[in-house]
């Protein structure tokens, strides 16, 4: 019965499939088992948040999906094809903004576009301006990077990541260094842009509340070695407000689960 | 406006004090000429064109030697930063030769190339190339790896990353290295011109040397002033605009 229904199943392949990925880093103090046999499927258009304390391998997994790091065993499939290196269809937004200080705002957004073939200079500029408008920075296109506030920098980074029109956006604690008020604004923006541009997003954070606010699913990691412990579906209507009571219920539940999986000395997770 | 006034007053007082002390007979007029004597030397040597021609000869050597230093020194620095093998070999050599005062190249250059322009260039290039190489190397090493990572995700790689990411990111270092290289080229050339007598062109260094031989103190001090002014102008015209741009872009300007 089940075999027949499996045989007749008619669904698109997963957007991203992480299959039994393991990764060990060698450091001066010995081996660090960053990821141990991690598997995860992400649907097209899904917003997945990876949560866990520092050292649980969530950022490493993001780098592997981006193609910036290799795996020791296992593989990552994007649209059914193995990931062997970075690709324009999977853009990364980094922890620090990683913007280029020798270029102005427009120059930064144009950087990736200039590497995309078959576009004229005028078209590239038009595309860049579209995304700068999307993140609300159309009046700052010629500003220098150091003149921007932390929140504006991350908006530029978001525009730069969106500009080559990737299907997948990989975000590595992009809001960790921002103040609470700026963060709340960006939660609204990122949900709006995600829905508008129909992206698949993998979002790494150590902030449970942030994960619940943004994710369709929250995936819980534990460290030493990095493993997936639990996955939570977040069934809340959007756009979500980080201060809502329903959201708090979810994050309490997940925080409790997180503490269960941790040794007592490694609890440095914000609720 | 106020800045300029201050500058003018400062130098006027300096020259006034000099003239006053010479007139009081504090120093022997044989050893210290008055500013007026130096001024008269300027007028006569500009009229008979010796000073202008010497300046031209010197600048030509300096610019050519410096440009060659950049053309070799910058890529060498990039190679050192990129390949461990280059760093261990050329890098160590560069560090060693950087500590060698460039006038020490003069005897060797004379024996190898004789009293020729080539000897001049050799001394200038050896004097400035290593600081350019070392600064480029240090600049590239100071570039945060996250820039290259970010560029890779956007489809950049290989030479493109080096030209469009690593090199511009290291520019603040590279420019200060270029500036240092310029200063070293200038020093080396003066040492070479004073040391190496050649017939293919009379530079400022030669003029200075003959000023000493003829015991023409007004010429000696006059030429020293010209050398200082050329150095100042190079700094203000060549490097200040680049540095101002970098400070503005990177946000390192001090107001």
Written description of the protein model:
The complex is a heterodimer of chains A (271) and B (255). Chain A has 271 residues and is an alpha/beta fold. Chain A has a domain of 180 residues: Rossmann fold (3-Layer(aba) Sandwich), CATH 3.40.50. In chain A, 35% of the residues lie in helices and 24% in strands. In chain A, the strands form two sheets. In chain A, strands 6-7-8-3-9-10 form a six-stranded mixed beta sheet, with helices on both faces. In chain A, strands 2-1-4-5 form a four-stranded antiparallel beta sheet, covered by helices on one side. The model of chain A has no long low-confidence stretch (mean pLDDT 86). Helices cover 82% and strands 0% of the residues of chain B. The radius of gyration of chain B is 22 Å and the shape is globular. By secondary structure, chain B is mainly alpha-helical. In chain B, helix 3 packs across helix 6 and helix 3 packs across helix 10. Chain B is built from eleven helices and no strands. Chain B starts with a helix and ends in a 5-residue tail after the last helix. The chains are: A alpha/beta (271), B mainly alpha (255). Chains A and B meet through strand 6 of A and helix 7, helix 8 and helix 11 of B.
Question: Could you estimate the helical fraction of the residues of chain A in percent?
Answer: 25-40%
The CATH H-level superfamily of chain B is MetI-like
Mean pLDDT of chain A: 86
Q: What's the story with the biggest beta sheet of chain A?
A: 6 strands, mixed
Rough shape of chain A?
A: globular
CATH superfamily of the domain at 13-99 and 169-261 in chain A: P-loop containing nucleotide triphosphate hydrolases
Classify the fold: give the CATH topology of chain B: MetI-like fold
How do the SSEs of chain A run, as a string of H and E?
HEEEHEEEHHHEHEHEEH
How many distinct beta strands of chain B? 0
How does the helix and strand content of chain B classify structurally?
mainly alpha
CATH topology of the domain at 13-99 and 169-261 in chain A: Rossmann fold
Number of strands of chain A: 10
CATH class of chain B: Mainly Alpha
| Strand content range of chain A | 15-25%
Largest Cβ-defined interface:
A-B, 27 and 20 residues
Q: Classify the secondary structure makeup of chain A into a structural class.
A: alpha/beta
Task: Please state the overall shape of chain B, judged from the principal axes of the Cα atoms.
Answer: globular
* CATH hierarchy: architecture of the domain at 13-99 and 169-261 in chain A: 3-Layer(aba) Sandwich
Q: Mean pLDDT score of chain B, rounded? A: 89
Rg on CA atoms of chain A, Å: 19 Å
């Amino acid at each position: 019965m089940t075999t027949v229904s499996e045989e007749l199943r008619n669904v698109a392949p997963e957007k991203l499939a992480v299959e039994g990925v393991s990764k060990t880093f060698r450091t001066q103090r010995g081996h660090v088992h960053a990821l141990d046999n991690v598997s995860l499927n992400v649907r097209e258009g899904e917003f997945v948040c990876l949560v866990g304390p520092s050292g649980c391998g969530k950022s490493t997994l993001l780098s592997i999906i981006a193609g910036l790091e290799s795996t020791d065993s296992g593989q990552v499939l994007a649209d059914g094809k193995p990931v062997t290196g970075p690709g324009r269809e999977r853009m990364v937004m980094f922890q620090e903004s990683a913007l280029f200080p020798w270029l102005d705002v427009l120059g930064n957004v144009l950087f990736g576009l200039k590497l995309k073939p078959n576009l004229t200079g005028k078209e590239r500029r038009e595309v860049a301006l579209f995304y700068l408008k999307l993140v609300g920075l159309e009046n700052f296109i010629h500003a220098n990077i150091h003149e921007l506030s932390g929140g504006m920098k991350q908006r530029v980074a978001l525009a730069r990541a969106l500009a080559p029109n990737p299907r997948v956006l990989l975000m590595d604690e992009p809001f960790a260094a921002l103040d609470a008020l700026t963060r709340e604004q960006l939660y609204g923006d990122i949900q709006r842009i995600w829905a508008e541009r129909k992206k698949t997003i993998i979002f790494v954070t150590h902030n449970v509340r942030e994960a619940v606010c943004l994710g369709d699913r929250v995936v819980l990691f534990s460290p030493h070695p990095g493993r997936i412990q639990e996955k939570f579906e977040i069934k809340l209507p959007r756009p979500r407000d980080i201060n809502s009571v329903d959201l708090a219920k979810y994050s309490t539940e997940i925080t409790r689960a997180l503490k269960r999986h941790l040794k007592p000395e490694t609890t440095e997770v914000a609720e | 406006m106020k800045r300029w006034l201050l500058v003018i007053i400062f130098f006027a007082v300096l020259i006034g004090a000099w003239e006053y002390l010479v007139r009081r007979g504090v120093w022997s007029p044989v050893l210290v000429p008055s500013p007026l004597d130096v001024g008269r030397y300027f007028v006569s040597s500009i009229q008979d064109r010796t000073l202008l021609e010497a300046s031209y000869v010197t600048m030509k050597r300096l610019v050519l030697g410096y440009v060659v230093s950049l053309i070799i020194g910058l890529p060498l620095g990039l190679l050192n930063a990129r390949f461990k093998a280059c760093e261990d070999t050329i890098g160590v050599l560069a560090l060693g030769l950087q500590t060698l005062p460039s006038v020490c190249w003069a005897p060797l250059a004379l024996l190898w190339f004789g009293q020729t322009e080539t000897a001049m260039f050799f001394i200038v290039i050896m004097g400035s190339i290593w600081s350019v190489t070392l600064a480029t190397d240090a600049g590239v090493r100071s570039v945060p790896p996250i820039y290259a990572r970010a560029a890779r995700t956007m489809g950049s790689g290989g030479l493109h990353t080096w030209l469009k990411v690593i090199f511009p990111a290291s520019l603040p270092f590279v420019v200060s290295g270029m500036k240092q290289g310029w200063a070293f080229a200038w020093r080396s050339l003066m040492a070479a011109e004073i040391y190496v007598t050649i017939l293919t062109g009379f530079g400022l260094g030669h003029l200075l040397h003959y000023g000493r031989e003829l015991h023409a103190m007004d010429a000696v001090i006059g030429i020293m002033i010209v050398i200082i002014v050329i150095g100042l102008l190079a700094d203000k015209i060549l490097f200040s605009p680049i540095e101002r741009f970098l400070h503005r872009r990177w946000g390192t300007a001090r107001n």
